[in-house]
Design goal:
The structure holds 3 protein chains of 3 kinds. By secondary structure, chain A is mainly α. Chain A has 8 helices and no strands. In chain A, helix 6 packs parallel to helix 8 (201-225) and helix 7 packs antiparallel against helix 8. Chain A starts with a helix and ends in a 7-residue tail after the last helix. By secondary structure, chain C is an all-alpha fold. Classes of the chains: A mainly alpha, B mainly alpha, C mainly alpha.
Chain lengths: 232, 79, 108
C-alpha cells in the first residue's frame, strides 16, 4: 500500500516537472553570457580552461560559498560524532597483509602526485581545486584502509584547512583593496597556456585544493578512528 | 559513439535498480559505485572532463569508502 | 617509432582480449581473478606505454600511469583473493591442491 502511494506521488511529481520544463526551449541559448565566456574568456582571464575561468574568476564569490558549504558539512559531522559517547576500548583489528601494506605505501605518493598535478594545472587542463583535493583525500583513504594505525595529525589537517580558507579570503580582500572588487585579478595575466599565468587563479585553486583535501581527509579520519565497530 | 553511450546508459539504469533492490547493503554500495563510475565515463563522452574528474574522484572513490565505513559501523542487512 | 607504438598497442589489446575470454571461461573465483589480473595488467601496461610511444610528449605521464597500473592491479587482486578465501568461497571441485590453511598457519 505504501509502495503504491509512493509510486502515485512520484508519478504526479514527474508529470508536474515534465509539464513545467517542456515549455522551456531545449538546446537554444537562453542567455548571451555563455557566448561571451567562450569568446572573450581566455583574453579576459588568461586561463585556457573556460570552466576554471567561470568557476574561479567570473563566479569566484560562489566558489567561496561552495567551500563554506563543505566546511559546514565537515563541522556538522565532527559535532555529531563528538556527541556519541565513546568507550575507551581499542579493539584488535587484524592488519592487512604485507602485500597490501607495501602496495598502499608505494601507491600513496603516486596518487598524491596526480592530485597535486590536477590542482596546479587547473587553469590549463581539465580539473582544479575540487577534483585534485578529492584525489588527495582518496590517497589518505587508501592509507587509512591499507595501513591501519597511521594517522594524520589532527592539528596539521586543521591548520592546512584554515590556511586554505585564509589564503582565499586574503586574495579576495587584496583584490578589493587594489582593484575595487572582491577577488579582483591583480596579478599580471601572463601568456595564456603557460604554468605561471592567469594571475591569481592558480593561487585560488591552490587554496581550494588545500581546503578540500584536508577537509575530506579529516572526515575520513573522524569516521574511521573515532567510531566504534557495532558488534553484530 | 551513440551505441556506446546507449549501452552505458542501460548498464547504469540496471545497476541503479540493483542498488535499490539489494538487501545486503554492501552490495548496494558497490552497485551505486558502478553508477558513479559509468556516470563519469558518460560525462567524459559528453565532453565535460571537469565534471567527469570530480564524479570519478568523489562519487566512485570517496563516497564508496565513506558508505562502506558507515555500513560496517551500523547494520549490514536490510529487513 | 609510430609503428612500434601501434604494435605495442595491438599486443596489449590482444592480451586484454585473452583476459576477457579467460574471465568468461574459468570455473571459479580464484581462476577468474588469476586470468583477469595477469592479462589485464600486461595488456593495459603495453597499451598505455604504446600511447606514450606514439605521442612522445606524453611519455613521462604515461610511464607514471603505467607504473600505477602495474602496482595497483596485482595488489587489489591479491586483496580480493584473500578476502574471498577468508569468506570460505569454495574452490572448483576438480582443483588438485589447496595450501592456504597450511600457509596462513605459518604466518602469525
Amino acid at each position: 500500500m505504501r509502495k503504491l502511494i509512493s509510486i502515485i506521488l512520484l508519478g504526479i511529481v514527474a508529470t508536474g516537472l515534465f509539464m513545467s520544463i517542456s515549455q522551456i526551449p531545449f538546446g537554444e541559448p537562453g542567455e548571451r553570457m555563455g557566448d561571451h565566456f567562450i569568446r572573450e574568456g581566455v583574453k579576459e582571464t588568461g586561463a585556457t580552461n573556460i570552466v576554471t575561468a567561470v568557476v574561479v574568476s567570473y563566479r569566484g564569490f560562489d566558489t567561496l560559498g561552495e567551500v563554506t558549504v563543505l566546511f559546514t558539512a565537515a563541522m556538522g559531522l565532527g559535532a555529531v560524532i563528538g556527541l556519541v559517547r565513546r568507550k575507551k576500548t581499542h579493539p584488535v583489528i587484524e592488519p592487512a597483509s604485507l602485500i597490501v601494506y607495501t602496495g598502499c605505501r608505494f601507491l600513496f605518493p603516486v596518487i598524491l602526485l596526480v592530485g597535486t598535478y590536477i590542482v596546479i594545472h587547473g587553469h590549463l587542463t581539465p580539473g582544479g581545486g575540487f577534483q585534485g583535493g578529492a584525489v588527495v583525500a582518496s590517497a589518505f583513504l587508501l592509507m587509512y584502509l591499507g595501513c591501519r594505525g597511521k594517522r594524520i595529525r589532527e592539528n596539521l589537517s586543521r591548520g592546512l584547512e584554515s590556511l586554505g580558507g585564509l589564503l582565499f579570503i586574503l586574495l579576495g580582500v587584496t583584490g578589493l583593496l587594489i582593484g575595487g572588487d572582491f577577488l579582483f585579478n591583480f596579478l599580471p595575466l601572463g601568456e595564456a597556456g603557460t604554468l605561471i599565468s592567469a594571475g591569481i587563479i592558480p593561487l585560488i585553486y591552490l587554496a581550494v585544493g588545500l581546503k578540500v583535501g584536508s577537509e575530506l581527509a579529516g572526515i575520513i579520519d573522524h569516521l574511521i578512528e573515532n567510531t566504534d565497530e557495532l558488534s553484530e | 559513439m551513440e551505441i556506446i553511450a546507449g549501452i552505458l546508459v542501460l548498464l547504469m539504469i540496471a545497476s541503479a535498480i540493483a542498488a535499490a533492490l539489494f538487501k545486503d547493503l554492501m552490495n548496494a554500495v558497490i552497485a551505486s559505485c558502478i553508477v558513479s563510475l559509468i556516470a563519469a565515463v558518460l560525462f567524459y563522452l559528453l565532453q565535460a572532463p571537469d565534471v567527469a574528474m570530480a564524479e570519478a574522484a568523489i562519487g566512485a572513490a570517496l563516497v564508496t569508502g565513506i558508505f562502506v565505513i558507515a555500513v560496517k559501523r551500523t547494520k549490514r542487512f536490510e529487513e | 617509432m609510430e609503428i612500434f607504438g601501434m604494435i605495442l598497442i595491438g599486443i596489449g589489446a590482444a592480451f586484454l582480449l585473452i583476459g576477457s575470454i579467460g574471465i568468461y571461461r574459468m570455473p571459479d573465483v580464484y581462476n577468474r581473478i588469476q586470468a583477469g589480473t595477469k592479462c589485464t595488467t600486461l595488456g593495459s601496461f603495453l597499451t598505455i606505454i604504446g600511447v606514450g610511444v606514439v605521442q612522445p610528449e606524453w611519455f613521462w605521464k604515461t610511464l607514471i600511469i603505467a607504473i600505477f597500473v602495474l602496482v595497483s592491479n596485482p595488489v587489489s587482486s591479491h586483496a580480493l583473493g584473500r578476502a574471498s578465501r577468508k569468506k570460505r568461497i569454495s574452490l572448483y571441485e576438480k582443483s588438485v591442491v589447496d595450501k592456504t590453511d597450511e600457509f596462513t598457519g605459518q604466518q602469525k
